[in-house]
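Q: Could you write out the predicted structure for this multi-component system? I'm mainly interested in how the pieces pack against one another.
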Amino acid sequence: MTRTQTLAPKPSQGFPSREGKSMLFDPSLPRNRINKLCTTVAGTFATIAVLPLLLVLLYVLWNGGRLISPQLFTQLPPAPGMEGGGIGNAIIGTIIVTAIASLIALPVGVGGGIYLSEYSRSGWFAQAVRFANDVLAGVPSIISGVFVYGLIVATRLFFNQSYSAMAGGIALAVLMLPTVIKTTDEGLKLVPQELRWGSYGVGASRFVTITRVILPAAFTPIATGAVLAIARAAGETAPLIFTALFSPFWPEGIFNPIATMSVLIFNFAIMPYEAQNALAWTASFVLVVMILGANLLARWIARAARP
Amino acid sequence: MTSDVAIPRADAFTLRRRPASERLLDIGFRQLTISLAALVGLVLLAIVLTVFHGSQEAMATFGLKFLTTSSWDPVNGTYGAFTAIYGTLVSSLLSLLIAVPLGVGTAIFITENLIPKILRDAIGLMVELLAAIPSVVLGLWAIFVMEPFLRPFLNFLHQSLGWIPLFSTPAQGPGMAPAVLILVVMVLPIITAISRDALNQVPDELRQGAYGVGTTRWGALFSIILPAAVSSITGGVMLALGRAMGETMAVTMIIGNALNFSFSLLAPANTIASMLANQFGEADGIQVSALMYAALILMLLTFTVNVLAQWVVRRLSLRY
Amino acid sequence: MSSPVSAPAPTATDTACMSLENVTISYGSFEAVRNVHLELPKARVTAFIGPSGCGKSTVLRALNRMNDLIPGCSLKGRVVFDGHDIYHPKVDPVEVRRRIGMVFQKPNPFPKTIYENIAFGARINGYRGDMDELVERSLRKAAVWDECKDKLQESGFSLSGGQQQRLCIARAIATEPEVILMDEPCSALDPISTLKIEETMHELKRNYTIIIVTHNMQQAVRVADMTAFFNAEAVEGGSGKVGYLGEFAETEVIFNSPVQQSTLDYVSGRFG
């Protein structure tokens, strides 16, 4: 660059003249028109984005909520073509299957999270675990069902039983695991380092430090993550349709097929009977209330714990 | 010799020397967490092996032709997954085409101080709660509410643009178009949430710098803020793509599960995930193996997209 | 280095570039600074000094409506620039910021190339001249051309902190504003970079009105023609302090023979 030095002031050369130009807002300027247009578009998009939730909630409340009655919780679904009935078995089934999944995924996930946050250094093993966890989080939920079908259902692993509540619970646990590990790992990382030093400083062992000092300090984020993971699992369908299958009867133990609300919705939605369709809406109502309730609860836990 | 100073009796601190049991507990707990962490890898490995093992028979029978042929014929035992692969890719890509502008636009609207904070928080909360609605409930809603409402519009498309192959069939119920729209509803929360985080992470100094040289709000957004956030947003979009490809229930309920290939978006179609959901329970023999083969392809697709997503985030963020 | 003593003292013929008339700025219900009257002279460097929390940065940011970006921040009174109250509801804040540029406390180059950092502002201000020439001229004026000339296409982040800040000054002057506001521009910099930026300011005041907030009193003495001393006082019955303008005069007067005792205490280091 061999340009002559041009330090001499050359005010406003090349710039549009400001003489006589007011500072008043001029809505007809291109930039202000573009601004207004973009804001309108973004506002419209935001409106469209909230519409689905409102519409789904509205229909679930209207189509499902108005059918709520005590018998719904105490009766079995009707045979095809019959009227009345309830979804009692599916409600209990959802609770059982979700409980099995939580009993597996929560201890394993919290344990794995403790390893990642408290013990692992940046070695190959920890990196491999983190990578596997990210990959597992991205595995489609239906694949988890295919996996458990191939491993447990088709091989009749449990007491020569094929479809079972246990198989469904394991399939859900596979889906919950990455979330629980991730929230535990991140929750533990939020615990200030000084707390660990303080505990080691009074001569506490690693085990005591982790179980008595660090885990309680990270209780809120871990609990929030756990509640969200359970809520998510309770609504999952794809891993259950060929693991837990469905049952028109009351649960007969965890090594038999079991009804769940999500599979009931799927099965009954595509049946050509109005009684079944109505029960699908009702089950949706119960499920949505439970899941949104759990979500709001998790939010509330997180907020209440914040200083 | 006696002293006045009270010396603690030696046995007051019984644990001065760590007993072997405590040390064992320490080591045992560490080993326990290591094995629990290793379980994640084992589960992943088991998934891959189970699906791979299950697909062996179909792989040997159909080979790579499985990917390019579209006949799915349980009666004659010939299987090709082209219809489902095509449906998976088209439904997820089309849904992103709609959901990305909607999600990023919404994220901008609720991060950039355009409306009062309480409204922004309310919109953010509603989009997050949308993510919590179970897929099967959205499917139910799609069957009974969305699709009947949509059908006249789709038929209007067919009547006015029917000469385009994409709209060449009349809309008669379930099909690709309603499946794409329900996928939009399902990936919108992910895209919005990740874009919102990305925009919030752009340092405020950068915004001020842009306003300081006299940009308008959208000038600053398009030329400074969005470019600074683009790596995270792109990563989020890729994650959403992975999610859309694997999404099962709502799609299964509304896509029509067609076994025949059609270019028309208004005709019934199929995806790998919905094919699995529909047929796995009743399949036997080589059909199970063919379905496992399709499942393996779906896993490969989502794996590639997810790894690419992480790569994109790392690669693009170097420039900022 | 030129000392402020040799600089021509402002006279009655100096025209005010900006004037604040009874300005009170609040964050929500909390008043940050109260009842400021101030006439900022054209083509001079004016320094705002004072203890922490006296509202000097708040006042500076009010001069090109940067406070608009802080939710809940409101201003009472008038800020007159070029015959307009820039807080009049019909005034376009974008237009105001195009004519009153700003350099911030922390260097904040855009995540673009050095060249684009300069060209971006000029382009949105409608510049139609030779862009290469403008980039070079701006970088030279900001005394950072030598460091940048061989890497114009590299990221602005590849520069050191002091160079980044001078890049930001170049960015501000490239849009040819009439006033440049500087909010503690040297607080994050080492002494050598600080000195270079002060030299830049001396160069710039031939063409621009400069208003600088500084914590460093020597810096005020070195660069400013006029100095405004802000102070803070406890509010009766309220919590926290509210800022006010203590004294405004030639820098020489403020530092050598201030009228008020509190100014003398502050500039002689007895508090603050």
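A: Regarding packing and overall arrangement: The first helix of chain B runs from residue 20 to 62.
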